[in-house]
Design a protein that fits this description.
This protein is α+β, with helices and mostly antiparallel strands. Helices cover 34% and strands 31% of the residues. The protein starts with a helix and ends with a strand.
C-alpha cells in the first residue's frame, strides 16, 4: 500500500515530466489552422466573393492569444487527470480486497471460538469420566486453538490498519480530482466545440457539392430530352425502312421457295443415288470383312502351328546339344552340319515337288488337248451351232408338242440327252475332272490374290440368292406370248398338277412307284414352343431308273403360315443321286399340325408327310404289381414305384386308393410348373429340351440323333432316380387322413408335380398287423384331362412269431482295438405267457463279445433289453476266423436267442468294422543342424493315420524354442490321411539341444519323435530378418533399410550373452566384417554389401527391389518384329518371281509354294537374326518391352540372402586374401518380393517416362514498384481469371486496354501432353504426388478416376522462374502401384534493360493544349526473341474499382498521390507511347516515344506504363508524370496546400472573356491578376547550444515553358518584395529577382537562421509577394513559417 508521500512524489514527477510527442502536435496545430483557411480562400475565390483577407487576419489574431505556457499547463493537467483515474481504480480494487480479507479473518475467529467452546465441553466431560489421556490431547488442541485465535487477532488488526491507510489515500485522490474537476469540464466543452466547428464546415462543403450536383443533374436531363427527340426521329425513319424491307422480303421469299424446291428435289435425287451407292459399297465391305476375318483365323492357326513346331524343334536341338556336350563333342559343329543337311533335304523335296507338278501339268495338258480334239470331231457345223436351242426353248417346245400329243420327240430328246450325258469315254471323264480341278484351283488362287491385293476397287458381286417358290397367282407371261399361248400354258399346268405326266421306260421296263424317297420318311417336329424356330433337313433320293427332275410344289394351305421350305432345284438328278431340302417351322399357335410337302417329279407327284406335335404328357408306371413277400407281424417293409413322364409337358399327379372317390376342386388355382419344379429339375428339363432341339436341327442325321436323344433321356431318368430319394422334400407332400389305418399304405409323397422327361418315385409301405394275405389297389390321377388314369396292385403275406428282434442287424459302426463299445438289443414278444430266453455268442468271439445277462425272462406281450459289450483285442483277426474279413476289416458275428418251448431260435447279427488307432510320425529322427539365435529353422514331418476313424491329436509339452505349425500342432486327422507339419526350431542361446516331440491322440496314446540341434550366437545381428516389400510394379523400385549391429562389447557373461557356436569358445571382442551374398540374376540390390562393424556400433544397409523383364525375353519378343521385315522383303522377291513363272505352274502348285515360303524361316535367316544385337533404344526393343509389360502376369518371389560373418576388419586383409567366414555364423535375410504389372502405363512417346521440355523463357512475378531487369526466383501463384476487355472504350493513341488491374503474372511456358492408360481390369483412383509449389512444373488437369481400359491425357506445363536446368518427378499413385514421370526442362532468362534510371519519366511542364514527347530504349540481353506490349494503367478496366475507394491522401498520409492521377477532360489518355507491340530480337534495342498531351491545367498528371513480355510477364513499370499550365510561367516547390484530386466544383479561374483578353498583345489587365499562396516551412535544427547549427534551407523553382504559340515575350521575369524585412527576421533569399529563358528554370534559395530575439516557443510566420511577368502577370503570396526544433 502507498502512503501520501508516495502520492506527492508521483505528482511531482508528473509536474517535472518533459515535453513529448503531444507537445509537438500542439505546436504543429497552427500550421494546419493556417492551411485550412488558405485552402478555403483558394476554393472560394471568384469574382463575387469578398472579405477573404479579413478572415485570415482575424484567425491569426486569435491564434496569437494562446501562449506556450497555457498549452504546457493544459498538457500537464490532462496527464494528472489520467494518472489520478488510474490510481483511483487501483485503490478501489485494493480496498475491496482488504475488506474481503477482513471479513474472512472475522469468520475464522468466530469459528475458532466455537471450536474452543466445544473442546472445553469435551475436556469437562472426559475429566468427569477420568480419561486423562483424552483430556491431555484435548488440552493440547485447546492450546493450539488459542494460539490460532491470537494470530487471527493480530492479522485483523493489521488488516484494519492497512484498510484505514488505503481509505485515507482514496480521500486524497478524491480531493485532487475535485481540484481538477473544473479543468475536466472545460476540456470536455472545448472538445465538443471543436466537433461542432467540424460539423459546420462539413455542412458547408456538402451544400457546395449539392449545388454542383444539381447543376449536373439539370444538364443531364437536358441531354436526355435531346436524345429522346433524336431517338423518336430515328424510330420513325427506322419504321419506314422496316416496311420497305418487309415488302422486299415477301417478294424474295416467293422466289426463294421456288428455287429451294428445285434444289431440294435435286438434292433428294443425289442423296438417293449416294445412299444406293453407299449401300452397295457397305455390302461389299461387309463381305470383304468376313473374308478377311476368315483368312486371319487361318493365318493364326498356321502361326500357332509353326510356333509349336519351332518350340518342339528348339527343344530337340537343346536335348541334342546337351547329349553331345555330355559325350564331350562339339555341339555347335553338329548343329551346323544338321542344319545344312536339313537345307539340302528341303531343297531336294522342293525339287521333287516341282518335278511332280510339272509332270501333272504335262499330263493335264495332253488330256485337255485330246478332249478338245474329240469335241471338234463331234461338233456340228458352225452355222448350226450358232442356232443351238437353249433350255428355255426346249421347255417350250416340249409343252407345245405335249399339248399337240407329240410325245415322241421329247422322249427322243431325253434319250439323246441321257446318252450324251452317259456317253463320254474315259478321255472325256478325265477332261471333266481336270477342268474341275483347274477351276477349283483357279478360284482358290484368285481368292488368295484378292485377299492379298484386291484388284476390284468398286462393289463386289452379289451373293447367289436361293431359289424361291413362285406364287401361284403370278401369271407367267412368256415374251411375245399370245392369248392362245396363255391358254395352252394354263391347260398344260393344270394337266401337270393333275398327275398327267409321261411315263418313264428304260430298256423296256416302265418305272412304277415313288420317284423320290425321303430321309426321314416322316418329318416330325415334336414338343415345340410358340415363338421358337425349328429347322430340319430332309434328303430326297432319286429311286427311278434314269435321270429325273424334282420341283417343289409347296405345302398345304393350313401350314403355309408356319412352314417355310427352302429348296434349290438341283436340275437333272441321276439315279441314286440326292438333294437336300431345308424345312423351317415357326409355330404361332399351340396346336397339332399335320400335312404334306408336295413335290413334282418327271414321273409324277409325290409328297413328304409332315407332323408338328405340341407338348403332351406321356405317363406310365414301371410296374403294375408289387409283391412284398412274407413278413413277420409288426415288421415294416417298403418298396417304391416309379411314375415316368416321357412327354414334353408336365402335370400334377395324385396317388389314391382305388376305393377312394375322385374329388376335384375347381376353386383351387392350378399350380404352374415353374413354381413346383426345383432348380435341379429345371436344369434337367433344360438339358432334355436342348438335346431335343439339337435333334430337330440335325435333320440330315436323324437316326443318329434319335439314338443320342434316347440315350440322353435314359441318362436323365437314371440321374433323377438317384437324386429323387435323397431329396423328397422338393415335391409337395400329402398324407391321407383316414380313420382306418390299413396295412399297405402310401408313403409321404402322394401328390405333386411331375415335369417333362422326368420321373417320380413313390414309396409303398407294408406293415403287417394280422397274419395272412394282404392286398390293396391304388390308382394314379392326373390334373391334365388328356392323361388316362393308371392303376397298380400291392400284395404281401404276414406271418406270426412270438419272439422277435426289431433290429435283426446291430451295427456298431467302426471300432478301435482295445476300446470298449456297448449297445442294447431289444427283444419283443407277442406271447400271452412269460418266456425264458437264453443268449448265446459263438465260441470264436466269446473273448471279444459278451451278452449280459446270458439268461433272462421276458414277460407276456412286453420287451426285454440285453446289454451287448464289444472289446476287440489285437487277436481278433485270428480268433474270429470266417466271421472277420482281414482285407475289409469287417466283422459279422451271429448271435442266437433260444426261446423255451420253441424249436426255431431267434437270430440277429452284430456288424462292426475294427480298425487300429496307430499314428505314425516320419521321419523317425530330425537333425536341425546349426541354427543361430536370430533365425529359425523349419523342417517338415508327416503324420499318418492308420485308422479308419478320424482322430484328434496334439503335440504337447513342447520346449520353448520349438513350435509346430499349423494350428500349433493340434487338429483332427481323417482316416488313412497323411498330414504335413512344420517343426520350427528357434534357439534362445548357444548350446547343443537334444529333445523329443510328443504327439498325443484323443485316446491318450503318445507317439514320440527324437530331435537334435546346435544353437549358435553369431557376433553380429540384423535389425530385421524378414522384409516384406509392397507389391511393386515392373520397373518400379521399393527400398527398405536394415541395420547390421555388433553388440559384443566385453567377454563378461553378466552383461550380455557371449557369441559362440554351441559349446565352443567365445568369439573375440573386436571389429567384425560381414558380406551379403546376392543370388545371381536377382532384382535385389544391397548397399553396402560388404562392411565392418565395430563393437557397440551399427551399419545401415539399404535393400532395393526393382523388378525388370529379363533381357532374353525382350529380345525373343523383338526377334519376330525384325524377322517380319526380312520376310516381307523376301516375300516380295518371291512374288515377283512367281508372277514371271505363272504360265508354267498350276494354281495348286503356286498355293502350296506360297504357303511353304510364307511360314518357313530358313536356317541362315535365323542365324543372321541371332547374330544381330538389338539396341535397347530401338523401336523394336521398345515395342517388345511395352507388349510384355502389358501382358505381364503378377508373380511372387522369395529370396533368402545369406550374410556371412568373419572376425576382424576387412581392410586389414593382406593382399587379395578373403577373410575367413564361418559357415555356422551365417545370418539370413528373407525378402518377400511381389511383382505386379503396372496398372497405369504411358501410351504416348513410345512408352517413355522421361519428358524434356527444352529451352523455355523465364517468367517472373512483378510488384507495382518492381524495376529489376531480371526475373526474381520466387514465383507467385497464377492470376485469377479476368473479364474480357471492353472493346467499346477509348483506346488512346493506339494503346490496348489492360485486361485487368496489375496482378501477379506467370512467365512463358511450354506444354506437353502425356497419354496414360489403365491396363488393369478394375477402375483406379488416381493420386498425384505434390510437385514443388515454387517450381516450374505444373500439372494442369487433375483426374481422380481412371476407368479400366480408359486412356486419359495429362497436360504438363513448364514455366521456369529462373535460368537453371530443372528436373522433377511426378508420381501417379494408385492402389496397385506407382508410375513415375521424370520432367526435365531448361529455363532461359529473358533479360531486358531500360535506359530510364529510377523507373520515373517526368515530362515536365507543358502548355495546356500542346504536347511534348520523350524517348527511352529497351534492350534484349537474352538468347531468345521477346514479344513485348506496352500497357497504361489509366486504360485498365480495374481502374473503376479503384476509384470507388477513398483517395490516397485520405487513406495513407504518407502517400498523397495516386498512381493514375489527373486525366484529360476530353476522354482521351493524357499519355501515349509508340510502338505498342512488337518483337525484340536477341541483342537488339527498341526505341520508344512517350507523348504528353494535356487538355487543361493541372499539376498532378500521372500514369504508369508497364512493359509486358509474352503477354504475361511484367518486365518494367515506368511512372509517367507531367504538369500543365495555361500560361508560360510556373513556380515549383513549397509545401502542398491542396489535394491531388480534382473536385466536382472546379471552376476555371478565368472566364472565356478574360482568356481572350489575356491572349491579346499588350499589358495584362488588373482583373487578370490572381493571388496564389505558397507555403514554405523551415525547421532550424538545434543539436547543441555550444555549436552553431547550419541554417534551414528551402528552394523554389521558377520556370518558363517552351511553347510553339507566338508570344511578345520570350522570357519570364520574377521579383520578390519585402526582402529587407525578411532579412531582419533571419531570412536570406538568393536571388530575389531575375529572368528565365524559355525551356529553362531558375532556383530561388531560401535560408533562415533564427535571430537573437527569437522566441523558440513561438514559431515565426511572415509573408512576401512573388510576381512573375510573362505573357500575363501572376502574383504568388509566399508564406514563410520558421521554427526551432531540438531533433530531426
Amino acid at each position: 500500500m502507498e502512503d501520501d508521500g508516495s502520492l506527492l512524489s508521483e505528482d511531482g514527477l508528473l509536474d517535472d515530466a518533459p515535453l513529448l510527442e503531444d507537445e509537438r502536435d500542439e505546436l504543429e496545430d497552427p500550421e494546419f489552422d493556417i492551411g485550412c483557411p488558405l485552402q478555403e480562400a483558394e476554393d472560394d475565390m471568384d469574382p463575387g466573393h469578398r472579405s477573404s483577407v479579413k478572415e485570415l487576419d482575424t484567425d491569426a489574431d486569435k491564434l496569437k492569444k494562446k501562449t506556450a505556457e497555457d498549452r504546457m499547463q493544459a498538457f500537464h493537467l490532462r496527464q494528472n487527470l489520467s494518472t489520478l483515474d488510474k490510481m483511483r481504480e487501483e485503490q478501489e480494487l485494493f480496498i475491496e480486497k482488504m475488506r474481503g480479507e477482513l471479513r474472512t479473518c472475522r469468520q475464522r475467529r468466530d469459528l475458532i471460538g466455537k471450536q474452543q467452546e466445544a473442546v472445553a465441553a469435551e475436556i469437562a466431560t472426559e475429566a468427569e469420566a477420568g480419561n486423562m489421556a483424552t483430556v491431555g490431547r484435548l488440552q493440547a488442541v485447546s492450546r493450539r486453538l488459542f494460539v490460532e485465535l491470537e494470530n487471527e487477532r493480530d492479522l485483523q488488526s493489521r488488516t484494519e490498519a492497512v484498510l484505514k491507510e488505503s481509505e485515507n489515500a482514496m480521500w486524497h485522490i478524491e480531493i485532487q480530482e475535485g481540484r481538477l474537476e473544473a479543468f475536466r469540464t472545460a476540456d470536455r466543452e472545448e472538445a465538443e466545440a471543436a466537433g461542432r466547428r467540424l460539423q459546420v464546415r462539413a455542412a458547408r462543403q456538402l451544400c457546395r457539392e449539392q449545388e454542383a450536383l444539381g447543376k449536373m443533374e439539370r444538364n443531364r436531363l437536358l441531354r436526355i430530352r435531346k436524345s429522346l427527340h433524336t431517338q423518336k426521329e430515328l424510330g420513325l425513319r427506322h419504321q419506314k425502312l422496316l416496311e420497305d424491307a418487309r415488302k422486299n422480303h415477301k417478294i424474295a421469299v416467293r422466289f426463294l421457295k421456288a428455287s429451294l424446291g428445285r434444289i431440294r428435289e435435286q438434292e433428294k435425287k443425289e442423296e438417293m443415288k449416294c445412299q444406293e451407292h453407299m449401300r452397295r459399297r457397305m455390302d461389299a465391305v461387309v463381305a470383304l470383312k468376313g473374308s478377311i476375318s476368315a483368312n486371319r483365323d487361318t493365318l493364326r492357326k498356321f502361326q500357332a502351328w509353326d510356333h509349336a513346331k519351332a518350340e518342339l524343334a528348339e527343344q530337340r536341338v537343346q536335348a541334342e546339344k546337351k547329349a553331345i556336350l555330355a559325350q564331350g563333342g562339339d555341339a555347335f559343329r553338329h548343329l551346323v552340319h544338321q542344319r545344312r543337311r536339313q537345307e539340302l533335304e528341303a531343297q531336294k523335296r522342293a525339287f521333287e515337288e516341282e518335278q511332280k507338278l510339272r509332270k501333272q501339268e504335262i499330263v493335264s495338258r495332253i488330256l485337255k488337248e485330246e478332249a478338245e480334239e474329240e469335241k471338234r470331231k463331234k461338233q456340228r457345223p458352225p452355222t448350226k451351232a450358232t442356232h443351238r436351242p437353249t433350255l428355255r426353248d426346249k421347255t417350250w417346245n416340249y409343252i407345245s408338242d405335249y399339248c399337240e400329243e407329240k410325245t415322241t420327240a421329247p422322249a427322243n430328246t431325253y434319250t439323246l440327252d441321257y446318252e450324251a450325258a452317259a456317253g463320254p469315254g474315259p478321255s472325256r471323264l478325265v477332261d471333266v475332272i481336270s477342268s474341275e480341278l483347274i477351276q477349283g484351283d483357279a478360284g482358290a488362287s484368285s481368292e488368295e490374290e484378292t485377299l492379298a491385293e484386291p484388284e476390284i476397287s468398286g462393289l463386289w458381286n452379289e451373293d447367289y440368292k436361293p431359289y424361291q417358290v413362285p406364287k401361284e397367282d403370278v401369271d407367267r407371261k412368256p415374251v411375245g406370248g399370245t392369248k392362245m399361248d396363255k391358254d395352252i400354258l394354263a391347260r398344260t399346268v393344270e394337266r401337270l398338277r393333275s398327275r398327267v405326266v409321261h411315263k418313264q421306260v428304260v430298256l423296256g421296263r416302265e418305272f412304277q412307284g415313288r420317284p423320290f424317297n425321303s430321309k426321314p420318311e416322316l418329318l416330325h417336329f415334336k414338343d415345340f414352343d410358340i415363338g421358337k424356330v425349328y429347322k430340319k433337313k430332309i434328303t430326297l433320293v432319286n429311286t427311278t431308273y434314269t435321270i429325273n427332275y424334282c420341283k417343289l410344289v409347296g405345302v398345304e394351305e393350313h401350314l403355309r403360315d408356319f412352314i417355310h421350305v427352302d429348296f434349290d432345284p438341283p436340275g437333272p438328278l441321276s439315279a441314286g443321286m440326292s438333294c437336300e431340302v431345308l424345312v423351317t417351322f415357326k409355330p404361332m399357335i399351340n396346336k397339332d399340325l399335320e400335312g404334306n410337302i408336295s413335290f413334282l417329279a418327271q414321273t409324277g407327284e409325290f409328297s413328304v408327310p409332315l407332323k408338328c406335335s405340341t407338348k403332351k404328357c406321356s405317363l406310365s408306371l414301371d410296374k403294375e404289381l408289387i409283391d412284398f413277400g412274407s413278413y413277420v407281424v409288426g415288421e415294416t417293409a417298403s418298396r417304391t414305384i416309379t411314375l415316368t413322364n416321357t412327354g414334353g409337358l408336365g402335370t400334377s399327379f395324385k396317388f389314391l386308393p382305388a376305393s377312394e372317390p375322385c374329388e376335384t376342386d375347381d376353386s383351387q388355382s392350378i399350380l404352374k410348373l415353374s413354381s413346383i419344379l426345383t432348380y435341379e429339375d429345371k436344369s434337367l428339363y433344360d438339358k432334355a429340351a436342348t438335346s431335343i432341339s439339337e435333334q430337330q436341327l440335325e435333320g440330315t442325321e436323324s437316326s443318329q440323333a434319335d439314338m443320342q436323344s434316347r440315350k440322353e433321356l435314359e441318362k436323365l431318368d437314371k440321374e433323377q432316380e438317384e437324386e429323387q430319394p435323397t431329396e423328397p422334400e422338393r415335391l409337395t407332400t400329402a398324407i391321407p387322413s383316414s380313420e382306418e389305418q390299413t396295412e399297405i399304405t402310401l408313403g409321404e409323397i402322394t401328390e405333386g408335380e411331375i415335369g417333362p422327361f422326368s420321373s417320380i418315385k413313390v414309396p409303398i409301405i407294408f406293415t403287417p398287423v394280422v397274419p395272412g394275405n394282404v392286398q390293396a389297389r391304388f390308382k394314379v390321377m392326373f390334373k391334365n384331362p388328356q392323361c388316362p388314369m393308371l392303376h397298380f396292385r400291392v400284395m404281401g403275406v404276414a406271418i406270426d412269431v412270438p419272439v422277435w428282434v426289431p433290429k435283426p442287424s446291430v451295427d456298431l459302426k467302426i471300432c478301435m482295438y482295445d476300446r470298449l463299445y456297448q449297445d442294447s438289443v431289444l427283444v419283443h414278444t407277442r406271447s400271452k405267457a412269460a418266456l425264458r430266453l437264453k443268449f448265446e455268442v459263438c465260441k470264436e468271439l466269446r473273448a471279444h463279445l459278451e451278452l449280459l445277462p446270458e439268461t433272462g425272462y421276458i414277460q407276456a406281450q412286453s420287451s426285454y433289453s440285453v446289454q451287448l459289450k464289444f472289446l476287440p483285442r489285437h487277436s481278433l483277426p485270428e480268433d474270429a476266423g470266417r466271421y472277420f474279413d482281414k482285407e475289409t476289416r469287417v466283422l459279422e458275428a451271429p448271435m442266437t436267442i433260444w426261446v423255451a418251448d420253441q424249436n426255431k431260435p431267434v437270430e440277429f447279427t452284430v456288424h462292426a468294422i475294427v480298425t487300429t488307432s496307430d499314428l505314425e510320425l516320419s521321419p523317425s529322427e530330425v537333425d536341425f543342424g546349426y541354427c543361430t539365435i536370430y533365425e529359425a529353422i523349419r523342417t517338415e514331418i508327416r503324420l499318418h493315420n492308420h485308422s479308419l476313424l478320424p482322430q484328434e491329436f496334439g503335440f504337447v509339452k513342447l520346449p520353448k524354442f520349438v513350435d509346430v505349425q499349423p494350428n500349433d500342432g493340434f487338429g483332427t486327422i481323417l482316416p488313412l490321411e497323411t498330414l504335413q507339419f512344420e517343426v520350427i526350431f528357434q534357439p534362445t542361446k548357444a548350446e547343443e539341444h537334444s529333445f523329443k516331440l510328443t504327439c498325443k491322440s484323443e485316446i491318450n496314446r503318445c507317439f514320440k519323435l527324437s530331435c537334435r540341434a546346435v544353437g549358435v550366437h553369431p557376433p553380429l545381428e540384423l535389425s530385421h530378418y524378414q522384409i516384406k516389400f509392397a507389391a511393386t510394379a515392373l520397373y518400379d523400385t521399393s527400398v527398405a533399410t536394415v541395420y547390421v549391429i555388433n553388440s559384443h562389447l566385453s567377454m563378461s557373461s553378466r552383461t550380455h550373452s557371449k557369441p559362440r557356436t554351441g559349446s565352443e569358445d567365445t568369439s573375440p571382442v573386436g571389429p567384425t566384417s560381414f558380406e551379403f551374398l546376392l543370388p545371381p540374376d536377382s532384382p535385389i540390390t544391397i548397399s553396402p554389401s560388404v562392411g565392418t562393424v565395430w563393437p557397440g556400433k551399427r551399419c545401415l544397409v539399404q535393400v532395393a527391389f526393382r523388378p525388370v523383364l529379363p533381357e532374353k525375353l525382350i529380345r525373343q519378343e523383338a526377334l519376330p518384329l525384325l524377322n517380319k521385315e526380312m520376310e516381307t522383303k523376301s516375300f516380295r522377291k518371291d512374288m515377283a518371281s512367281q508372277r514371271k513363272d505363272m504360265h508354267r505352274l498350276s494354281f495348286s502348285a503356286l498355293r502350296m509354294q506360297n504357303r511353304d515360303k510364307l511360314f518357313k524361316v530358313s536356317v541362315p535367316h535365323v542365324l543372321e537374326l541371332r547374330k544381330r544385337e538389338l539396341n535397347p533404344s530401338s523401336n523394336e526393343y521398345q515395342a517388345a518391352r511395352a507388349t510384355l509389360v502389358r501382358a505381364f502376369q503378377a508373380k511372387f518371389d522369395t529370396f533368402v540372402v545369406p550374410c556371412v560373418v568373419a572376425n576382424g576388419d576387412i581392410k586389414d586383409g593382406k593382399g587379395s586374401e578373403p577373410p575367413s567366414f564361418s559357415p555356422h555364423n551365417t545370418l539370413y535375410l528373407e525378402l518377400w518380393c511381389p511383382t505386379v504389372a503396372p496398372s497405369v502405363v504411358v501410351t504416348s512417346h513410345k512408352g517413355k517416362t522421361i519428358f524434356n521440355f527444352g529451352d523455355v523463357a523465364v517468367g517472373e512475378t512483378l510488384s507495382p514498384t518492381h524495376t529489376s531487369t531480371r526475373c526474381p526466383g520466387t514465383p507467385t501463384p497464377p492470376p485469377a481469371p479476368r473479364p474480357a476487355p471492353d472493346r467499346g472504350a477509348p483506346w488512346g493513341l493506339g494503346l490496348g486496354l489492360w485486361p485487368d488491374a496489375p496482378c501477379p503474372i506467370s512467365g512463358h511456358r511450354s506444354i506437353k501432353k502425356v497419354s496414360i492408360q489403365n491396363v488393369s481390369p478394375e477402375d483406379l483412383a488416381l493420386d498425384f504426388s505434390l510437385l514443388n509449389p515454387n517450381g516450374p512444373f505444373v500439372l494442369l488437369n487433375h483426374s481422380s478416376l481412371l476407368r479400366a481400359g480408359e486412356t486419359q491425357v495429362l497436360v504438363l506445363s513448364f514455366s521456369p522462374h529462373e535460368s537453371i536446368l530443372a528436373q522433377e518427378t511426378l508420381d501417379i499413385i494408385t492402389k496397385r502401384g506407382t508410375l513415375t514421370l521424370t520432367l526435365v526442362g531448361t529455363g532461359v532468362a529473358s533479360m531486358i534493360t531500360c535506359s530510364i534510371e529510377g523507373s520515373i519519366l517526368n515530362m515536365g511542364y507543358v502548355i495546356a493544349g500542346e504536347s511534348v514527347s520523350s524517348g527511352f530504349k529497351l534492350q534484349n540481353n537474352s538468347l531468345l526473341p521477346i514479344k513485348f506490349s506496352m500497357l497504361l494503367d489509366s486504360l485498365s478496366s480495374a481502374r473503376g474499382r479503384g476509384q470507388q475507394q477513398l483517395p490516397q491522401f485520405l487513406s495513407s498520409p504518407s502517400q498523397r498521390t495516386e498512381v493514375v492521377g489527373t486525366q484529360n477532360l476530353n476522354g482521351q489518355s493524357v499519355f501515349s507511347v509508340a510502338p505498342v507491340k512488337g518483337v525484340m530480337d536477341p541483342g537488339k534495342t527498341q526505341d520508344f516515344t512517350v507523348t504528353f498531351s494535356p487538355d487543361h491545367e493541372s499539376l498532378y498528371f500521372s500514369d504508369r506504363l508497364q512493359v509486358v513480355l509474352f503477354e504475361k510477364k511484367i518486365s518494367h513499370q515506368i511512372l509517367l508524370k507531367g504538369a500543365a499550365r495555361e500560361h508560360m510561367m510556373f513556380v515549383e516547390g513549397g509545401d502542398p496546400l491542396d489535394v491531388p484530386v480534382e473536385s466536382l466544383t472546379v471552376i476555371p479561374v478565368f472566364d472565356p472573356k478574360h482568356r481572350e483578353a489575356s491572349s491579346r498583345p499588350g499589358p495584362p489587365s488588373p482583373e487578370a491578376e490572381e493571388l496564389r499562396p505558397i507555403l514554405v516551412a523551415l525547421d532550424y535544427i538545434q543539436f547543441d547550444t555550444d555549436m552553431p547549427a547550419p541554417p534551414a534551407t528551402r528552394e523554389l523553382q521558377v520556370g518558363c515553358i517552351r511553347t510553339t504559340q507566338p508570344s511578345p515575350k520570350k522570357t519570364v521575369e520574377f521579383s520578390l518584395d519585402s526582402v529587407t524585412s525578411l532579412q531582419h527576421k533571419g531570412f536570406s533569399i538568393e536571388p530575389s529577382r531575375g529572368s528565365v529563358e524559355r525551356g529553362q528554370t531558375k532556383t530561388i534559395t531560401i535560408s533562415w537562421v533564427p535571430p537573437a530575439d527569437f522566441d523558440p516557443d513561438h514559431p515565426l510566420m511572415v509573408s512576401a509577394l512573388l510576381q512573375l511577368r510573362g505573357d500575363v502577370k501572376e502574383t504568388y503570396k509566399v508564406i514563410f513559417v520558421a521554427q526551432v526544433v531540438t531533433g530531426p
